[in-house]
């Protein structure tokens, strides 16, 4: 029994250590992003919000297309940035802890999708700024990522986040007054698409299925004895986290 448990424990420990390292990296990345947003707000406020006028995204203006990348860093007031900072950090961290490199790709996709929705759907000449498009994108990404990656832990996280923050969807529909529903809707779509485009494509271990074993002792057809129980994937996930 100890001969079998040893390698499994070492594998679980290694996976847990890798996950913790990625989570630590994700924490500092999101801390840096939120810090950059607040630094931009300080400069923006000191200049009478001139950065909003200069780098905000102007709908329908071809010369403003590069502002798709700068508008999410800017906010129109202190109340605006305060309402976005907490959700940005939480959802951003949950989106990044499985891998920062993939997270950066998802972030770019979300920013472009959110900005494109604003540019095409907002009233011509209107200026839009704020990180809420990223917030909605990370939210959509976190909710469905586990389904595409087939990670049970991420699926559970997505279910909890979706159930807890489903009210966010009410401000991502056309006609919502007082906010840029276009940025919210575009970001949400970008996050959902990003979860599919950046899904984990690594083949899963199917040794147990190829063994041809029955639900008995697993010896029929040269089976390896791998547990075919549906909960075995959950056990593996928990083991990777060091919880088993």
TrEMBL record:
UniProt GO BP: proteolysis
Signal peptide coordinates: none
Membrane topology: Multi-pass membrane protein
Positions of transmembrane segments: 26-46, 103-121, 127-144, 156-173, 179-198
Start-end of Basic and acidic residues biased regions: 228-244
Domain annotation Peptidase S54 rhomboid: ranges: 68-199
GO molecular function: peptidase activity
Gene3D superfamilies: Rhomboid-like
Major subcellular site: membrane
Keywords in alphabetical order: Hydrolase, Membrane, Protease, Transmembrane, Transmembrane helix
Keyword Secreted part of the UniProt annotation: no
Record localization: Membrane
InterPro entries: Peptidase_S54_rhomboid_dom, Rhomboid-like_sf, Rhomboid_protease_S54
EC numbers for this chain: 3.4.21.-
Ranges of compositional bias, category Gly residues: 209-225
Region spans: Disordered: 204-244
Family annotation (PANTHER family): RHOMBOID PROTEASE, SLR1461 PROTEIN
Name of the protein: Rhomboid family intramembrane serine protease
Organism: Streptomyces gamaensis
Source organism phylogeny: Bacteria, Bacillati, Actinomycetota, Actinomycetes, Kitasatosporales
